[in-house]
């Protein structure tokens, strides 16, 4: 069974800019597992292990949802952490989209996934790019200070033209992502 997720690929320049921020933070020797530059993306929905027989219907659902929505502009700015800067577990770059198109796409996606037996995600849709996961709360004072002092940054913006279904393979060296299929948004 493939381990799948639905995401927006980030432009190379944005991934590299985020990688530079990660490199700055790595100087603090933090207990963080960093996302590899090539794997930096905006997750729309993590699906987990999916039965091979469900994949064709899933791709049809994604094609239908993408066909209903326009491309939109994604703004990448601000650094933060979940659940909070004072208790960082996930380090993120913020992502926002002013027209509401991305949120409407996400809502249609959730409805389509429910028809295939995927439970609705209980959390509100909060677009962000995960750049690292904190492995231990020890020695995170430099991270907290950096996020408080440097959190108000702008990475850039990009047009979202397609949605991607990825397969994630876990290895001892980290996850390897492979594109299963891309779905162009209908209206540009």
Architecture overview:
With 188 residues, the chain is of the alpha+beta class. The chain has one domain: Alpha-Beta Complex (Cyclic Phosphodiesterase, Chain: A), CATH 3.90.1140. 28% of the residues lie in helices and 40% in strands. The chain is built from four helices and nine strands. A five-stranded antiparallel beta sheet has the order 2-6-5-4-7. The longest helix is centred in the first third of the chain and has 15 residues.
List the topology elements.
Layout: E1 3-9, H1 12-26, E2 32-34, E3 41-49, H2 55-67, E4 72-83, E5 88-96, H3 101-114, E6 128-134, H4 141-150, E7 154-160, E8 162-171, E9 174-184
Antiparallel strand pairs: 1-3, 1-8, 2-6, 4-5, 4-7, 5-6, 8-9
Helix pairs in contact: 2-3
List keywords for this structure.
188 residues, Cyclic Phosphodiesterase, Chain: A, four-stranded antiparallel β-sheet, globular
Please identify, by name, the CATH architecture: Alpha-Beta Complex
| Domain module count | 1
- Report the average pLDDT across residues: 93
CATH names the topology as Cyclic Phosphodiesterase, Chain: A
What is this structure, in a nutshell?
The protein has one domain: Cyclic phosphodiesterase (Cyclic Phosphodiesterase, Chain: A, Alpha-Beta Complex), CATH 3.90.1140.10.
């Amino acid at each position: 069974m493939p381990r799948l997720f639905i995401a927006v690929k980030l432009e190379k320049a944005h991934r590299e800019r985020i990688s530079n921020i990660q490199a700055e933070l790595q100087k603090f020797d933090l207990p963080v597992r960093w996302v590899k530059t090539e794997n930096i993306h905006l997750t729309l929905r993590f699906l987990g292990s999916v039965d091979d027989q469900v994949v064709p219907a899933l791709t049809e659902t994604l094609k239908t949802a993408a066909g209903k929505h326009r491309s939109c502009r994604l703004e990448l700015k601000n650094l933060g952490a979940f659940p909070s800067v004072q208790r960082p577990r996930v380090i993120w770059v913020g992502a926002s989209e002013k027209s509401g198109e991305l949120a409407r796409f996400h809502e249609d996606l959730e409805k389509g996934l429910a028809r295939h037996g995927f439970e609705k995600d209980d959390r509100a849709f909060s677009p962000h790019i995960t750049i690292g996961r904190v492995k231990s709360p020890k020695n995170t004072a430099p991270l907290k200070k950096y996020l408080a002092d440097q959190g108000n940054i702008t990475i850039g913006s990009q047009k979202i033209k397609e949605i991607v279904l990825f397969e994630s393979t876990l290895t001892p060296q980290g996850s390897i992502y492979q594109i299963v299929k891309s779905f162009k948004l209908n209206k540009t």
